[in-house]
């Protein structure tokens, strides 16, 4: 392995992958991400420990960013982030030149971007919504994603070779407006980890550890609501945003102070665009609460 992993990770990797042991549960409580299966966590940790890049694929609000943050914490690695958009350009990735003063003289300085900083520090680089970037932008960093681990800075002509510990975690939401399919050359540089919505006991654990809600009956009701929303998304009745775990946790928090139906209205329903979707979720909330 390329990293000196903390003992708790080594222990998890050495255990049977189907075992839900106490070490695993402690890891969940300590770091905030609740994996739906042991295998998801183990596979992501294994890939990173071997120096491979991982691509987290899943619906919005499923916890991809939280998983990336948790992995960064477990590896004791700082993480530089890139939020992709159609405006992403070389300067956003590599950095930019600016005027500065040294000893009362004006000089040109280069301010490093997240790719440059992560490579030189030997840190993690997180690329969020990687399929939002223009296809012509990302090939600039192809060399950072394969065995070369090098890139030529177009602004300084410096050839940067990543320090040991550098690795890339990217996240993707497929099928959203403004996204484009990843080309095969880019996709082949990643190990793909599918991050589904949390459900059942894992979701209950997340609600307990990440919200102010403590009432068991209410936690059960919100877990049921989430399952119903996910089922409706699968059937094409709702947009994926309606089943966002992030939005559900907000509703759980608000329900400690305001009525749950109003909490659901503010956190979930009012974010939806279509009246039929709003009415559908309102009916679910009315039935459960």
From TrEMBL:
Name of the protein described by the UniProt record: MoxR-like ATPase
InterPro entries attached to this UniProt entry: AAA+_ATPase, ATPase_dyneun-rel_AAA, CbbQ/NirQ/NorQ/GpvN, P-loop_NTPase
Top-rank lineage group of the source organism: Bacteria
A matching Pfam family: AAA_5
Domain AAA+ ATPase: residue ranges: 50-196
Originating organism: Virgibacillus alimentarius
SMART domains, alphabetized: AAA
